[in-house]
Each structure stands twice: as structure tokens, then as C-alpha cells.
Amino acid sequence: SMMGLQFFLTGRFKNITAPYGIDVVYHFHRAISLIAFSLILLHAVIIIAAGPEALVLLHPASAPWWMAAGLFGLLAFGVVIATSLYRIKLGLLYERWRVVHGYVSVAAVGLAMAHVVGVGYYAQGPVKRGLWIALTVSWVLALVYVRAVKPWIMSRRPYRIDEIARERGSSWTLTLSPVGHGGMKFNPGQFAWLTIGRSPFSIREHPFSFSSSAMEPDRIRITIKELGDFTCRIGEVVPGTRAYLDGPYGSFTIDRYAAVGYVFIAGGVGITPVMSILRTMADRHDARPVLLIYGSRTWDDVTFREELEGLRASLHLRIVHVLEEPPEQWRGECGRITAELLARQLPENRMERDYFICGPEPMQKGVKEALDRLGLPMEHMQ
To answer: 100-103 long-range contacts, Cβ below 8 Å, gap at least 24?
Structure first.
């Protein structure tokens, strides 16, 4: 049951993700899947420990079909867990992993259901049978919606890539315009899954943050850094290519939080959703004070460097650049974003601000620990 419910957690149902943010839901999906898999393993261990003669049921050639289904279902769940935890070490490309994860997960749940029905103990009587039928139907409907209905809806709302511009920091900005519809309304800082040059029914899609203003739903910009097997070729995309968006998603947005001012702490390409927020604030003539602490490797790696400087004229914006490898004569902050650096740079009314942190996971963890050391409450951190 716990494994089957993962189809809802990963199906991007907005009624499920909206209250918490899809990042939180995906973290929960990962944790609860590991717990469920541990319970499945424990189930097998208890049966064998209680009666060692049950070992004979583990041989697929002599075991009843329902036992073989259970065994292969267990192995399939193991493949799903192992490839998810060790994808990079196994050398699995992201797109190939998604295919394996999707199809093997469906096979694992199907085999597990066959095992439950074959054993019969938990499928006896109309109430139990009705429960399992209802669960199975709900899982199938979730799959049909995610893999058929939603892509069909996306196919009716295509986009065209109008422009591809190189940015600092080995990044590229794609400008998309809607074809035959009004575009996508989103909150500044949110993201969407992007499919380029393929059918929306393809499983090859990738999540990226919007970098454009939310006040321009008909001119969407997405900034992508060259990092992985897909993103390293993003500069080769030809203008005019058809694209599809599934979104918007995410709770990393000022529209959910009313504050007297904001502190944005970004690292590398983590500036992308922050840029969407700053551009939106400028278009809205938002006069609230903003502090941006932006960590980069070198001065040339500072994505949107010139535009950020230009935004000072239209926003109550202060920018603190932190460079790991500063140039000669650099008088700004150096190294990493630490509690000591934050203590120097945060405003006096720091307790009244909301904090938005985006960047590599180690950086986010370190910044949150530093803010906690400074006494900032967790509920003020996004």
C-alpha cells in the first residue's frame, strides 16, 4: 500500500504538492519509500526466521507462482531503491534512470499485488477484496492521468523556443513563447518540467526554474547551467524548436510570504529563481528592502552580473558577492558563506526578514546551520 501510494506523491498532483512545496513532497517520497522497503525486507526475514522450511519457497523453479511473483517483486523494489540511491556511482544517465525507475516501479507494484492475491490471506472476504480493488484502481488511474491525460493536455499548449542566449557561469537562457495560447501564469521563483524537441508523452523531461518575471506569462525565460548529460548540450538547441512545460510547481516564492523585506542567499545557478523574484519585484515596483548574498567561484562566473547591478536602480537592493577565487585587488567577501560573514552583512532588523536559500545542497545545509547559529527561526527560511 505504501509503495502504491508513491504514484500519487510523484504524480505532481497540485492538490498534494501545493501546501508543502514539491521539494518537500519528493523528500518525503524518498524517505517513506526507504521505510516501506525496509518493512518488505523485514516481512521476508520474519517468515524465514519463523520457519526455515520456507526457504524452499524462494526457489523460483519449485515455488508457487504467487511466491515467485513476491520474490521478483522484492528484487524489483531493490533495483528501484539501489538505482535511486546510487545512480551517479552506477553511471546511470538521468534520462535512463527515469525510464528504469518508472517501468520497474510499476512492475514491482504489479508483482507485489499478484503475490498478495495469490497468498489470499489479505484478500479474503468482500471488504478486503474491495479495499485492494479500490487501491489498485486508484493507482492505475493515477498512472493513466500522469502518463496519458497530462501529456495530452500539454500537447494542446506547446511552446516555441525563440532565443538561446549565453550567460556568464556556463549558463544559457532559453526564451519561450506560447503557441496558440496565453502562456503560463506562475509565482516568481517557481519551476516547471521542460521537454525540448520531443513529444510531451516522452519521459525525457527535466525540472528548471523560471528566471523571467511572473508579470510576463507570455514570454518565459529559463536559465540552465551546463552540468549534466542533458544540460551540457543545451547551447545546441536551435531556435524554433518545439517545447512543452509542465508546471508551475514549488513554494520558493515571495507570493506565499508577506514580510517587511527579504534576504536571498544564492550559490551558482541557484540565482535563477532569485532572478525571477527580483525581476518580478521590479515590474511590480515593489519597494521593500532586499539583500542578495551571492556566492560564485570567480568574478566571471557571476551569472546575471550586469543585470543585477542594473536592478539597483529600480529596487531597494543591496548585493554582496562572495567569491571563492577572487581576482587581485578584490575588496569584497571571499571564501564560503559562513555564520561570521552573515553576521557582518545581515541587516539590523534581520529577525523581521524572510530568507530564501538556493544553491548546491551542501551550501544550503551550511547556510541554514549558520542562520540557526545566529538565532534566525526556521520558519523564516525557505
So the answer is: 102/203
Question: Is the CB of residue 314 less than 8 Å from the CB of residue 245?
Answer: no
Residue type, 33: S
CA 337 to chain centre: 24
- CA angle at residue 71 from 69 to 73, to 5 degrees? 65
The residues facing 323 across adjacent strands are 296, 334
Q: Residue 245's closest CA among 275, 221, 262?
A: 221
pLDDT digits (tens, 9 = 90+) for 108-155: 999 998 888 888 888 888 888 888 888 888 988 988 888 889 989 999
Cβ atoms 303, 211 nearer than 8 A: no
User: CB of 322 within 8 A of CB of 380?
Assistant: no
Q: What does 141-173 look like in DSSP terms, one character per residue?
A: HHHHIIIIIHHHHHHTS-EEEEEEEEETTTEEE
CB 185 within 8 A of CB 157: no
User: pTM value?
Assistant: 0.84
By the 8 A CB rule, do 355 and 381 touch?
yes
Tally of CB atoms within 10 A around 202: 13
The β-bridge partners of 173 are 165, 223
- Distance from CA of residue 110 to its chain's centroid? 27
Residues facing residue 295 across a β-bridge: 267, 322
DSSP structure string for 239-288: TT-EEEEEEEE-S-SGGG---S-EEEEEEGGGHHHHHHHHHHHHHTT--S
**pLDDT, tens digit, for every residue of 183-214?**
999 999 999 999 998 888 877 788 899 999 99
Cell numbers that stand for 24 in this block: 518537500
DSSP state of 210: B
d(CA 164, CA 231): 13
